[in-house]
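Hi C.,

You asked whether I'd gotten around to modeling the 307-residue construct. I have! Everything is below, sequence then structure, no commentary in between.
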Amino acid sequence: MSKLLQLISLLIFCQFSILGQPAEKKMTAEQYINNFKEDAIKEMLMYNIPASITLAQGMLESGNGNSDLAMYANNHFGIKCHSGWDGATFRKDDDAKDECFRKYPSVFDSYTDHSQFLKSRSRYSFLFEIKRNDYKSWAKGLKAAGYATDPKYAQRLIQLIETNNLHQYDNIDGLPTIKAAIIEKPTTPKIIQTREILKSHFIKYVIVKAGDSFSKIAQDTDKDLWQLYKYNDLRAEDKLVIGQKIYLQPKRRKAAEPYHIVKKGDTMKSVSQLHGIKLKSLYKKNNMKPGEEPAIGQQLYMRDTKK
């Protein structure tokens, strides 16, 4: 009898313990914007994709960061593996059963890959001719290019942008102020003193901001000048540009994306910096001579060698 009473007591205790546990708290739209607006702005300054569009897509595709794909794979844009992806993966049912999605070390890696995904695919190339503050044309263009199958995809993006006043971020021309603190979070970039260390394709880098010099970046990141020059295929006389990537580690022989479609203003060096591929490797993969520049519309090979 005593054992039966103990069993009943245990069942009652477990029931109340379960009922007493708070429901999992989900991220709100406001919290999502506050958490990731600076990432969207950085991507805009580097790739010229409206921050409002990036934020709205992230909110819509990830359910404000609450979807399984966002929580377990840091994938906020629903980007599938596609050919050429050799990073971590996450499987889930979508248009078909057990589809392959990209998995990232951090949310910022997802934001960067989203920018590179749009920039490197020819079907999205016309978007970069649209003004940065014309979010309506960008939203309609993404739908026309086939980013999503939802027939109301453009309207949903526009509604999110206007409801949350996201278009205010499209007019920002400088990097956000970074607080002088050490922050350690699993889904956010690491901040050391006043210099934020980011990572793309598993390569650490910083973004050039107003007042920077090679010496200042070297001091902030505890690097020697020769390392900055070598890792970035730069010389002491080269000028830094606000929003430019400066790598703190050697670039890779291959990029994450298979191709890059050359846009107006692109150079071999800028493409090398954009994708974190060694300049020498970029020339070799495309059977080009050092110093030769690509033509607008040319497809540059980033992983395989051009036949």
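If it helps when you're writing up: Residues 62 and 76 are 5 Å apart (CA to CA).

Thanks,
B.
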